[in-house]
């Protein structure tokens, strides 16, 4: 994979000085186009052996570009905050907005490469990790984040010679060290082989690796700048996204086909109910279990993410209120999810949820969630079928990362009948302190009930997993629904904590 880079590539200082002014001007013009259009953002990943000039390339790009829309993203020793969140959290947290460029020294490839070099993971685990990275990068690309990946190449002997010079303090400027853990000759050989696998297995049409010969600094910097210019120009010529809402899909109940439309909601027994005495006893017992479990020492290394979705007026807020009563108010947050802000629209749709993932030992409750992509955005035509169609896999990957990091993901759909919803809407209109909960859109959305039923059925089918299953809650009786929610959370905590 590095064959061409093994040959000598040099650029004398006079030639570099001749080409640099035009390259700088073109880079600035292309960057200004990116800033003005605000259609996409760009991540530049810089990797390579220690001593290959990663820091020098970074500084050169800062000299050539408008630094006001340029961000350096570094991931050396993990911070305390990063250690209490899933591994991907820090990358999502730092994603630049549309019109901006982020330059990453140490990316999502870093840990996998080091672990492979040190023999902590085998080849199958390594390639499985890289497959996850491919899916992650494909999702970023589809969501408006372009990725430029640079591997600064040095031969093994040259890299070792520079490393020895570095250890003797023969470099006047700071050197970016990424591979300090890789110490022995065997480990360095494994790292080299792993790097070739990374380039081979994660070079895609949208995000290929560019191998930059790094023996000569002028050639290295000129090539890095040229490749960056090509990427910015390609981003400028990419078709602009269509900002207009798309027509909603056809009503499934009106589309002729050979089989009747199935709805998972139709399988629920909405007549389930509890009397007041049983409700109070069962709810109190479940709340005590939740309190005991979320304050136990074992929970310090876990986290709880609770998702509430459901029909309008199904009782999400009242169920959340009863759940809150069981939690330490210092260690949980409720996140009501509405239409995205301008800041959130300038990034992939999952960004605003990743940044709200709690630290280990804490709880986050989402009143509506990332499932809006496959529910309201699908039904209202706010995104294309291609967008919501790929979202199922992206959401599964997201939740898999959470559960792999120790989080317990509990998902509820609260279901009521159309008739009960109409009664609750009418009641809200007559109660002053509940009027804010009702909008004209709520009444209008009732006309799309069959569309939402179809969307819910597919959502449950495609995102109810062993680690993060959906719990369907019969919510016609609010007392029954609140108890089922609390009991389910307590049961999931007990199963996860082994208590």
TrEMBL record:
Listed SUPFAM superfamilies: P-loop containing nucleoside triphosphate hydrolases
Query: Looking at the record's lineage, which domain of life comes first?
Result: Bacteria
Which keywords does this Swiss-Prot/TrEMBL entry list?
ATP synthesis, Transferase
InterPro entries recorded: P-loop_NTPase (IPR027417), PolyP_AMP_Tfrase (IPR022489), PPK2-related (IPR022488)
**GO biological process, alphabetically ordered:** ATP biosynthetic process; polyphosphate metabolic process
Source species of the chain: Xanthobacter tagetidis
Coiled-coil positions are: none
Mention one GO molecular function.
Answer: polyphosphate:AMP phosphotransferase activity
One Pfam family it belongs to = PPK2
Reactions catalysed according to its record: [phosphate](n) + ATP = [phosphate](n+1) + ADP
Q: Which residue intervals define the domain Polyphosphate kinase-2-related in the entry? A: 20-235, 274-495
Report the protein name in the record: Polyphosphate:AMP phosphotransferase
Q: What is the lineage of its organism?
A: Bacteria, Pseudomonadati, Pseudomonadota, Alphaproteobacteria, Hyphomicrobiales
Give yes or no: UniProt keyword Transferase. Answer: yes
Q: Where is this region: Disordered?
A: 237-258
Which residue windows does the record flag with biased composition (Pro residues)?
240-251
């Amino acid at each position: 994979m590095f064959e061409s880079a093994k040959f000598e590539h040099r650029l004398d200082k006079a030639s570099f000085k001749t080409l640099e002014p035009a390259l700088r001007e073109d880079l600035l013009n292309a960057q200004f186009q990116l800033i003005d259009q605000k259609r996409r953002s760009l991540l530049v990943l810089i990797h390579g052996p220690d001593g290959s000039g990663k820091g020098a390339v970074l500084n050169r790009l800062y000299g050539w570009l408008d630094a006001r829309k340029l961000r350096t993203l570094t991931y050396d020793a993990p911070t305390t905050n990063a250690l209490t969140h899933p591994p991907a959290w820090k990358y999502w947290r730092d994603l630049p907005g549309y019109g901006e460029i982020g330059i990453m020294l140490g990316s999502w490839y870093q840990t996998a490469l080091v672990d492979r070099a040190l023999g902590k993971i085998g080849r199958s685990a390594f390639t499985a990790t890289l497959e996850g990275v491919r899916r992650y990068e494909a999702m970023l690309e589809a969501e408006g984040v372009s990725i430029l990946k640079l591997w600064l190449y040095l031969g093994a002997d040259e890299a070792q010679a520079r490393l020895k010079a570095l250890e003797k303090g023969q470099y006047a400027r700071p050197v970016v060290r990424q591979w300090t853990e890789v110490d022995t000759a065997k480990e360095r050989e494994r790292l080299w082989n792993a790097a070739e696998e990374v380039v081979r297995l994660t070079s895609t049409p949208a995000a290929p690796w560019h191998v930059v010969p790094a023996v000569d600094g002028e050639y290295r910097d000129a090539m890095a700048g040229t490749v960056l210019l090509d990427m910015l120009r390609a981003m400028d010529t990419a078709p602009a996204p269509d900002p207009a809402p798309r027509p909603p899909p056809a009503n499934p109940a009106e589309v002729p086909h050979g089989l009747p439309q199935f709805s998972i909601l139709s399988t629920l027994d909405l007549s389930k109910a509890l009397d007041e005495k049983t409700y109070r006893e069962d709810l109190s017992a479940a709340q005590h279990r939740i309190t005991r479990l979320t304050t136990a020492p074992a929970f310090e290394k876990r986290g709880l993410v609770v998702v509430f979705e459901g029909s309008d007026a199904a009782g999400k807020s009242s169920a959340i209120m009863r759940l809150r009563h069981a939690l330490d108010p210092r260690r949980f947050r409720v996140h009501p999810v509405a239409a995205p802000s301008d800041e959130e629209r300038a990034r992939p749709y999952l960004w605003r949820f990743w940044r709200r993932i709690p630290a280990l030992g804490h709880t986050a409750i989402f009143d509506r969630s990332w499932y809006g992509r496959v529910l309201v955005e699908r039904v209202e035509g706010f995104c294309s079928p291609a967008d919501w169609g790929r979202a199922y896999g992206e959401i599964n990957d997201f939740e898999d990362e959470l559960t792999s990091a120790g989080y317990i993901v509990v998902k509820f759909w609260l279901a009521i009948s159309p008739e009960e919803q109409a009664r609750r809407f009418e009641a809200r209109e007559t109660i002053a302190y509940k009027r804010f909960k009702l909008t004209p859109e709520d009444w209008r959305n009732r006309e799309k009930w069959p569309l939402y039923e179809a969307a819910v059925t597919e959502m449950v089918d495609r995102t109810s997993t062993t680690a993060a299953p959906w719990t369907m809650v019969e919510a016609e009786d609010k007392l029954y629904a609140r108890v089922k929610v609390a009991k389910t959370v307590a049961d999931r905590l007990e199963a996860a904590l082994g208590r």
